[in-house]
Design brief:
about 550 residues; 24 helices; about 0% strand; globular; Na/solute_symporter; transmembrane; membrane; transmembrane helix
């Protein structure tokens, strides 16, 4: 076992890079006699099939923050972190059945566009600016930082050079091709992502078992660290503040999941690009099933690394490579890169390609959505209302390039963050409750007014900050803060709406019918299957 890359690792990785760039540029080419228009660039000509939507959703979602951050959380606190993945499967079903029909019926390009149709241009602009800031300074910057950290750990390349390399790789095809290039390359990225992740999981478990196989390794991991296999943490657990027991299932995690999967532009955009609503719902179902297996790829390796590090006999067999960049409780995010050192020649290239696929696909998705929001909700609204398709597409490319440049500058400043996945969730959770309150009531309560929505969104920030910094023990878990902030924001919206409209429906309220939410037998059966599997998983690891 050796740290660093051998020739065949470089061959595999370079082949992967050429494949992604080749496919991305090929699907981006302009067809004979047709110049790329806004629908082509931002919504892939509304032509995506279900399997491209499902895989693209996962590729956009699974990034360095999962591979690095969630493995780190697996190392530090165990399988309980998998609640993010398993509850996301259930959330996707809710989004597919109740949110998508409304979004697709309205023919949206962006989520802020829905806000304009339901509420007002002012609120749309407020949220568009917020999302641009969040994508650039939190999402893009954190993915670049974690990706740079991984490359520095595995290959010894300077972090800044690694960050620039990742940025250029993502830009090479996504800026030119738009959502079409992103979505179709995501299909390939997911193959690498899952294959490489499973290879790493196999290696970790096989190492723990002393070469006796995966099942034996898993049994030994459970036996060596039984406290790492509880989904519901007790209050006495030191990690309760991050995953507060039963409240994970019935409290604040629903805020994070519904906001992320239902109202997050870089996630929902590929569902808006579907051939039809039914095709989009089938894609959602595929993504939900893939979500069930993601913890095997990103959480289990972190737990296995914890067992390896704390077993002197295993560490002795790892040789000098095992002593390099060893993860600790204080530096848990080193767990996944540390494991990659021990893969055989060739497979190390596959696993690294998987990590790169996760990073680059998320960067590409975020860039495309950032450019979509800026172009459609800011540029066309305030700067050039009469912009033609050529101008619109060019502005999309330029705005994506500027966003990427800013993120590259900000990324190194995030150094020193441990358990980055938890950090990102916690600080996104300050602003997501107010937005969730606005959308949920805007979609399903016809009395919601524009002024009430604006005040609900604005007041949610001081409410969240007050709950965060008040010295009250019950508010200490940040998931509690998210849940309570959402309820209080909704209460503000309900009170102001009733005062303003005196109980009458708002003129822009959305008429809802049973037919609108009718789903196919395939979607219904698949949804029940997912719920049964989730019940079994939580019963096994409660």
């Amino acid at each position: 076992m050796t740290a660093g890359f051998e020739m065949w690792d470089y061959v595999v990785f370079v082949a992967y890079a050429i494949l992604i760039l080749g496919v991305g540029l090929w699907v981006s080419r302009d067809k004979d006699g047709h110049q790329k228009n806004a629908e082509d660039y931002f919504l892939a000509s509304k032509s995506l099939p279900w399997w491209a939507i499902g895989t693209s959703l996962i590729a956009a979602n699974i990034s360095a923050e999962q591979f690095i951050g969630m493995s780190g959380s697996g190392f530090a606190l165990g399988l309980a972190i998998a609640s993010y993945e398993w509850m996301a499967a259930l959330t996707l079903i809710i989004v597919g059945k109740y949110f998508l029909p409304i979004f697709i019926e309205k023919g949206l390009y962006t989520i802020p566009e829905f806000v304009e149709k339901r509420f007002s241009t002012n609120l749309k602009t407020i949220l568009a600016v917020f999302w641009l800031a969040l994508y650039i300074f939190v999402n893009l910057a954190s993915v670049l930082y974690l990706g740079g950290l991984a490359i520095e750990t595995i290959m010894g390349i300077d972090m800044m050079h690694a960050i620039i390399g990742l940025a250029l790789f993502a830009a090479a095809y996504s800026l030119y091709g738009g959502l079409s290039a992103v979505a179709w390359t995501d299909v390939i990225q997911v193959v690498f992502l899952v294959l490489g992740g499973l290879v790493t999981t196999y290696l970790a478990l096989n190492t723990v078992s002393g070469g006796e196989g995966v099942l034996s390794g898993f049994s030994k991991v459970v036996e060596a660290a039984p406290d790492k296999f509880h989904m519901i943490l007790e209050e006495t657990n030191e990690n309760y503040v991050n995953l507060p027991g039963i409240w994970v299932l019935i409290g604040g995690l629903w805020v994070a999941n519904l906001y992320y999967w239902g109202f997050n532009q870089y996630i929902i955009q590929r569902t808006l690009a579907a051939k039809s609503l039914k095709e989009s719902q089938k894609g959602i179902l595929l993504a939900a099933f893939l979500k069930l297996i993601i913890p095997v790829v990103v959480v289990v390796p972190g737990i296995a690394a914890y067992v390896m590090v704390n077993d002197p006999s295993i560490m002795a067999n790892l040789g000098e490579a095992g002593m390099l960049n060893v993860p600790t409780t204080d530096q848990a995010d080193k767990a996944y890169p540390w494991l990659l050192q021990f893969l055989p020649v060739g497979l190390k290239g596959v696993a690294f390609a998987a990590l790169a696929a996760a990073i680059v696909s998320s960067l590409a998705s975020m860039l495309n959505s950032t450019s979509t929001i800026f172009t459609m909700d800011i540029y066309k609204q305030y700067i050039n209302k009469d912009a033609n398709d050529k101008t619109t597409v060019n502005v999309g490319r330029i705005s994506a390039a500027v966003a990427l440049l800013i993120a590259v500058i900000v990324a190194p400043l995030l150094g020193g963050i441990d358990q980055a996945f938890q950090f990102i969730q916690e600080y996104t959770g300050i602003v997501s409750p107010g937005i969730l309150a606005v959308f949920i009531l805007g979609l399903f309560w016809k009395k919601t007014t524009n002024n009430a929505a604006i005040w609900g969104a604005i007041l949610s920030i001081p409410i969240a900050l007050a709950l965060k910094f008040l010295p009250i023990p019950v508010f200490e878990p940040w998931m509690h803060q998210m849940g309570i902030t959402t309820l209080l924001s909704m209460l503000v919206i309900v009170i102001i709406s009733n005062i303003q409209n005196k109980g009458a429906d708002d003129p822009k309220g959305i008429p809802l019918t049973k037919e609108l939410f009718k789903t196919t037998p395939l979607f219904n059966v698949g949804s029940f299957a997912i719920m049964i599997i989730l019940t079994v998983l939580y019963a096994l690891f409660w």
